[in-house]
Write a structure and sequence with these properties.
The complex is a heterodimer.
Chain A lengths: L10 H6 L3 E5 L3 H10 L3 E5 L18 H10 L3 E5 L9 H14 L3 E4 L2 H10 L2 E4 L8 H7 L5 E3 L6 H14 L10 E8 L11 H6 L18 E2 L5 E2 L11 E3 L4 H6 L4 E4 L6 H19 L5 H13 L5 E2 L21 E13 L4 E6 L3 E3 L3 E6 L3 E6 L3 E3 L2 E2 L2 E3 L3 E5 L9 E7 L2
Chain B lengths: L1 E6 L8 H5 L4 E3 L6 E3 L3 E3 L2 E6 L4 H10 L5 E4 L1
Classes of the chains: A alpha/beta, B alpha+beta.
Family (chain A): Belongs to the peptidase U32 family.
Keywords (chain A): Hydrolase, Protease
Protein name (chain A): U32 family peptidase
């Protein structure tokens, strides 16, 4: 990937370019949602050798040509995650995946295991170093620069540390295999882990289910009480003592970009399409606005409000601003302000009339309600019900068991799921 | 007679079942997922019958599987 300024390019040109927004896709619908949100690049996993082997509806090897073609049509880069711990028996599949990445023109792999890094390098496949590698200092950057042009820094670093590493890259002229300066990527938004760079063994110890093989059972997200060997319970402020809030940098994105990071990663391959679309769009708009000098605290607040509507565990600023201790989520699951509830399926979409015919399978919908229509090729379409017909007659509402027709502003597709999108009770 | 049901498409290749009962579970070098020795394929699911002498090992394999793709019936 070469979308940003190298040391050879004029400073002015660098300033007018916005950072790359890298969006997650754990499903086809999320992939389309990322495109709708304006992602510059999309990362995804296939088969079982990725860190969301359990959580996501992962893609398969045979999906690569379709993914690659779709991304190229939209001018978007694609990164394939191949970042679990690898055992000897995984090596043939690892090689097969990298060969397929090369064959189908996927932009790069994201890896941490040296076996994958080494094989991709030999095959001429670009490598991005994964957060699992826990890059926390300039020497590590220099070490990995023999294999990779882009690397993500550990989420536990402060922005001061990130900035120092970027300056070190320029001072030492640390270049990747392409001959250009190494680019630094940082996590901008999404879940954080209680363990350093996700290197956690809780799930393995308790459920035999290794987080480092993409099978995390998320023990940390539950409520815990602390007692000692005499059965005395310790008083603690919050039972969710191991569940960090989500990282959100939108209200200090100018400082994040001032560190010199050029790629902003949004976490969430296990999250829903509407999360992917909203987070991608907000960060894209914010990064553009930082680049063209129109970023303001008021705008940041508006984006943050939008981010609060979709899945989140409450927000904090991570470790970037140099906090002593973390902030822990007060809730199990999401603190999103909105929620979606399944109500039916699109039986048919009539493109000329721009209406969708919907089979109501649960609950009811009324004029004025907001719907989300989500599908593998549709991504996420939000629609306020302006006009509604039941049995070809204008109606105020449609209930379970009925078929109804709704005017759409954007096209949807047969078989898409329809949800009611409303404030959480 | 008891039966193992193995939902192979969801296997993540962690190798635990191979560790506990290698006579029945082997690792495929082709795709890095487990192979149920003697299993018959129907759709995405593999099934194999086995005798009482294998009960403990197969139940242990099912127990240690982190993604619950091994079921033991009977």
């Amino acid at each position: 990937m070469r979308s940003f300024a190298s040391n050879n390019q004029p400073e002015q040109e660098f300033k007018t370019r916005h950072a790359e927004i890298m969006a997650p896709a754990g499903s086809r619908a999320s992939f389309h949602a990322a495109l709708q949100g304006g992602a510059d690049s999309i990362y995804f996993g296939i088969e079982q050798l990725n860190m969301r082997a359990r959580a996501s509806n992962n893609f398969a090897m045979e999906d690569l040509p379709e993914i690659s073609a779709l991304a190229q049509d939209h001018g978007v880069k694609t990164y394939l995650t191949l970042n679990t711990v690898l055992y000897d028996h995984d090596l043939p599949l690892m090689r097969k995946i990298i060969d397929a990445v090369k064959e189908h023109g996927i932009t790069a792999i994201i890896a941490s295991d040296q076996a994958a890094i080494s094989y991709a390098f030999k095959q001429g496949v670009d490598v991005h170093i994964s957060t699992q590698a826990n890059i926390s200092n300039i020497e590590m950057v220099e070490f990995y620069s023999h294999f990779a042009d882009v690397m993500v820094l550990a989420r536990e670093l402060s922005l001061g540390q990130v900035k120092k590493i970027v300056e070190g890259i320029k001072e030492r002229n640390i270049t990747g295999p392409s001959g250009e300066l190494v680019q630094i990527e940082v996590f901008a938004h999404g879940a954080l882990c209680m363990a350093v760079s996700g290197k956690c063994y809780l799930s393995l110890h308790t459920y035999n289910s290794s987080a480092n093989r993409g099978a995390c059972k998320q023990n940390c997200r539950h409520a815990y009480k602390v007692d000692n060997d005499e059965g005395i319970e310790l008083e603690i402020d919050n039972e969710y003592i191991m569940s960090p809030k989500d990282l959100c940098t939108i209200d200090f994105l100018d400082q994040v970009l001032d560190s010199g990071a050029t790629v902003l990663k949004i976490e969430g391959r296990g999250r829903s399409p509407e999360y992917v679309q909203t987070a991608t769009r907000c960060y894209k708009e914010a990064a553009l606005s930082v680049a063209n000098g129109t970023y303001t605290p008021e705008k940041a607040l508006q984006w943050k409000n939008e981010l609060e509507q979709v899945y989140n565990r409450g927000f904090w600023d991570g470790y970037y601003l140099g906090r002593k201790v973390g902030e822990w989520s007060p809730v199990y699951g999401s603190a999103a302000k909105k929620e979606k509830t399944f109500v039916g399926k699109v039986i048919h979409y009539y493109p000329k009339a721009k209406v969708s015919h919907i089979q109501m399978k649960a609950r009811e919908i009324s004029k004025g309600d907001t719907l989300l229509v989500i599908g593998d090729r549709t991504g996420v379409v939000e629609q306020v019900i302006q006009s509604l017909w039941v049995d070809d007659k204008p109606a105020q509402k449609a209930v379970k068991g009925e078929e109804c027709t709704i005017k759409m502003d954007e096209p949807v597709r047969d078989g898409d799921n329809v949800y009611l999108w409303k404030d959480r009770a | 007679m008891m039966r193992i049901i193995f939902y192979r498409n969801k296997c993540i290749g962690c190798n635990y079942c191979v560790e506990v009962w290698p006579e029945r579970w082997q690792m495929s070098k082709r795709d890095g997922k487990c192979v149920l020795v003697g299993g018959k394929k129907k759709g995405q699911v593999y099934r194999a019958d086995f005798g009482e002498h294998e009960r403990d090992q197969n139940e242990k394999a099912a127990d240690v599987c982190p993604v619950d793709v091994i079921r033991v019936e009977g």
